[in-house]
Specification:
There is one protein chain. By secondary structure, the protein is an alpha+beta fold. The termini are far apart. The chain has 9 helices and 40 strands.
Length: 779
């Protein structure tokens, strides 16, 4: 047995050495570090000496380990995550060479000086490391039994819109659950939305539930609208819109819209609206779930009117309509990356009582706000708005975050209006649809930096009416929502150039210089990561093979481009929450790059890259056809062969920013490796490394921030002022949604509820559970 283990070890040493020689040689030829060549050479020599049963193998290899430590410290200092791939595997191999059976193999005494101390010490170190991870991850202790005050007025206990208010602050004035007693939170109830109508499980359950009066309203991924008892989670009614899900990419409904019709009584005096994956706007009676007969045709409006021929799966709605001055305003999700002249990105408003068309904002004809003339359609292929919108009733404005003219990664065909209004936030007049102001977050966007997050409205001392616009770039722009002028300074800075033939680039891009950028550390060759020197060397090679001149590096056909941040962000549709009493903005961000490339049309045709159709499903990542322009594209996260990011951890953080100064108040690693790891397999060990996240947070008046969002199946509560983790609870899947909090009169308790549906692209599991937490009932 000992002989077999020694042979196996020396074979492994030789294979690793040859791999590093090969990979290190490639890296050196690309201008990268030569250390991997040296490492590989030493390992091959060590394996040869070991096969010759030479004791020199131990001396040579341990001398190398000393040199390797010096090199690692020179490259990255005392950063533990950066040191791990450089030291862990080589040291483990060196330790094997100190075992009695290897020492006897090379003619040394079976036991060396210090063995009695070293081996128990290493065992204690291993057990201690794992134990420390679990100790750090332990649930905080239960807290005080003293409850905070209840709501001062009934409205404070409701959650009436996506993000709680029409401005999407994600702030609640409730304060019963406090930093002192949050440790006592327990699961109050769960609700299963059930299987979707096409037989699939609800793995896209991302709803932000509303609570109005004595009902909780939400939607499932197939657009079923459900009303629950907020105290018990018991279903009160359910409306099945029988949505046609054929050809739809991603079954997503992030929320519904509530409206109390002024002076109305009886049926449909209070309404719930939903927009569907087959492009319908539906009005329901909030009390019963029945269709409102006076709205549109039998309670429905066809959103395909004016769009022309819409291929299945190319146009649908995932965000709840915005409500402003009696109108419902909504855009739509247009399939990414398939071809030019996809359905129009038109933004439309409809009367909230009758469903009648009110106005349109069509970027192809921005000064005309009616329906297209007979025989015409809204301009195809224009920038769309798929993220949640916000509104200001007093100003009469609706704030619209926009995407790109299709396709995303080439823009040589785009019009002046496309370039003016894409990847921007627009303030539209609620009564006419006219543009009051616009602010562009990315000029001539070629990186899929469409604005994904709801604009968050915040009022500051002195009467300043602010708007925070988070972006995938990780830039957060703080604007005056009445004028669009920056409250905190914005600078135009030069960015990399060098477009492919037929393309043009903006020479500068806007940067929010007074607020930290949340794109993560700039990628470098030294910052490439891996579990071992082998996959780390592979990542370093891929980095050297790609073009990277900083953020906004344009894509090319000659080589891949590292796009930083990647299309996940930065900040995605979870947006930010604001605690106006403490003047803090809470931001959860990702720190993962993309590895993208343009493909000449002839090559794309040879590879069979086609737009999505009835027989061929597509994705927003991977190969995308971009038919109608000279290039297809290959879009992917920047991952190692083990399916982990090539950048070193952390991959996600949660942060707080002072809105008065723009300064970072605190920043914490967000999430552990418990539910993720190499080859997309869970490690089951809660190593605090920060993980990718998508979803939002909610801040409360008592000084708590609740958030799920991570790849890890966990729901957490942080102290808003300090970032201290105070409570957490295990979820059945990732809480990749935005939580809500509300008051229940039935028990006099504050509840916090989150959709724990997971997310397919995040590999965070799948579930159909809505989970509610509250303090234990008082006897």
């Amino acid at each position: 047995m000992q002989r077999f283990l020694n042979v196996l070890f020396l074979l492994l040493m030789c294979l690793v050495g040859l791999s590093l020689l090969w990979l290190g040689g490639r890296l050196a030829l690309l201008g990268g570090s030569i250390w991997y060549v040296f490492s590989g050479l030493v390992m091959v020599v060590t394996a040869y000496l070991g096969c010759r049963r030479s004791a020199l193998s131990v001396t040579v290899y341990w001398a190398f380990l000393a040199a390797n430590l010096c090199w690692a410290l020179w490259e990255v200092g005392l950063d533990g995550w950066a040191l791990a791939p450089r030291l862990a595997m080589p040291v483990a191999m060196g330790l094997y060479m100190l075992t009695p059976f290897y020492r006897r193999h090379v003619g040394l005494a079976g036991r060396f000086v210090g063995a009695r101390i070293m081996w128990p010490g290493l065992l204690l170190l291993l057990v201690g490391a794992v134990g420390t991870a679990f100790w750090i991850d332990r649930s905080p202790m239960a807290g005080s039994d003293i409850w905070g005050a209840g709501p001062s007025q009934p409205a404070d206990g409701d959650w009436i819109a996506y993000g709680n208010d029409r401005g999407g602050s994600r702030f609640s004035p409730l304060a019963q659950i406090t930093p002192a007693n949050v440790g006592n939170l327990e699961k109050a109830w769960t609700f299963h939305t059930g299987k979707l109508s096409d037989g699939k499980q609800g793995s896209a359950f991302q709803a932000n539930p509303l609570k109005v009066g004595n009902r909780l309203f939400l939607c499932a991924g197939n657009n079923d609208v459900i009303a629950l008892d907020p105290e018990t989670g018991r279903q009160l009614w359910r409306h099945h819109p029988n949505t046609d899900l054929a050809g739809v990419y991603g079954l997503v409904c992030r929320g519904v819209t509530y409206y109390r019709v002024p002076q109305a009584t009886g049926v449909c005096a209070e309404r719930i609206y939903t927009a569907t994956l087959d492009a319908r706007l539906i009005a329901l009676d909030a009390a019963t779930g029945s269709l409102c007969p006076g709205f549109g045709r039998g309670g429905q409006v066809d959103l395909k009117v004016g769009l022309g021929n819409v291929d299945k799966g190319y146009y649908f709605v995932t965000s709840p309509p915005a409500l402003v001055r009696g109108r419902l305003v909504l855009g739509g999700w247009v399939m990414d990356g398939q071809k030019i002249k996809e359905p129009s990105g038109v933004v439309r408003a409809f009367d909230a009582v009758t469903g009648d068309f009110s106005w349109a904002f069509d970027i192809g004809r921005p000064d005309e706000h009616g329906l297209p003339p007979s025989g015409a359609i809204f301009t195809p292929g224009t920038p769309n708005s798929w993220a949640p919108m916000s509104s200001d009733e007093a100003l009469g404005l609706v704030y619209v975050p926009t995407g790109n003219a299709t396709p995303d990664y080439f823009g040589g065909h785009r019009t002046a209006n496309d370039d003016r209004y894409s990847s921007a936030v627009l303030a539209l007049d609620a009564e006419s649809g006219a543009v009051r102001w616009s602010f562009q977050t990315t000029h001539h966007d070629l990186w899929d930096y469409d604005v994904p997050a709801q604009p968050t409205l915040v009022d500051l001392p002195g009467g300043v009416r602010g708007l925070l616009q988070p972006t995938k770039r990780g830039e957060i722009f703080f604007l005056d929502r009445a004028t669009g002028k920056p409250i905190l300074p914005v600078e135009e800075r030069p960015v990399p150039q060098g477009a492919v033939p037929g393309e043009r680039l903006s020479k500068t891009q806007p940067y929010s210089v007074a607020i930290p950028s949340f794109g993560g550390p700039r990628p470098t060759e030294r910052g490439m990561w891996g579990l071992t020197p082998i996959d780390q060397a592979m990542c370093r090679i891929r980095f050297r093979q790609a073009r990277f001149d900083g953020d906004m590096t344009p894509l090319s056909t000659d080589h891949p481009t590292v796009t930083w941040p990647g299309y996940l962000g930065g900040i995605d549709w979870g947006g930010v929450s604001v605690d106006p009493r403490r003047g803090l903005m809470i931001v959860n961000n990702n720190q993962v790059a993309n590895y993208n490339r343009l493909i000449p049309r002839a090559d794309a045709d040879r590879q069979g890259i086609k737009p999505m159709n009835a027989e061929h499903m597509s994705d927003v990542g991977g190969p995308v056809a971009q038919m109608g322009v000279p290039y297809a594209a290959h879009i992917a996260p920047f991952l190692s062969p083990l399916a982990i990011p090539c950048q070193q951890p952390p991959y996600g953080r949660i942060n707080a920013v002072d809105l008065k100064t723009g300064k970072l108040v605190w920043s914490r690693i967000f999430g552990t490796s418990r539910d993720s790891g190499p080859l997309a397999l869970p490690t089951f060990v809660p190593i605090p490394m920060g993980v990718p996240n998508i979803g939002g947070s909610v801040a409360t008046a008592s000084g708590l921030t609740f958030i799920g969002a991570t790849q890890e199946h966990m729901f957490r509560a942080y102290e808003t002022a300090t970032g201290r983790l105070l409570w957490k609870a295990r979820l059945p899947a990732g809480g990749n949604a935005s939580p809500s909090t509300y008051w229940s009169d039935a028990s006099g308790r504050q509840f916090v509820v989150i959709a724990a549906g997971g997310h397919g692209a995040m590999l965070s599991g799948a579930s159909d559970e809505l989970v509610a937490y509250a303090l234990p009932k008082r006897e």
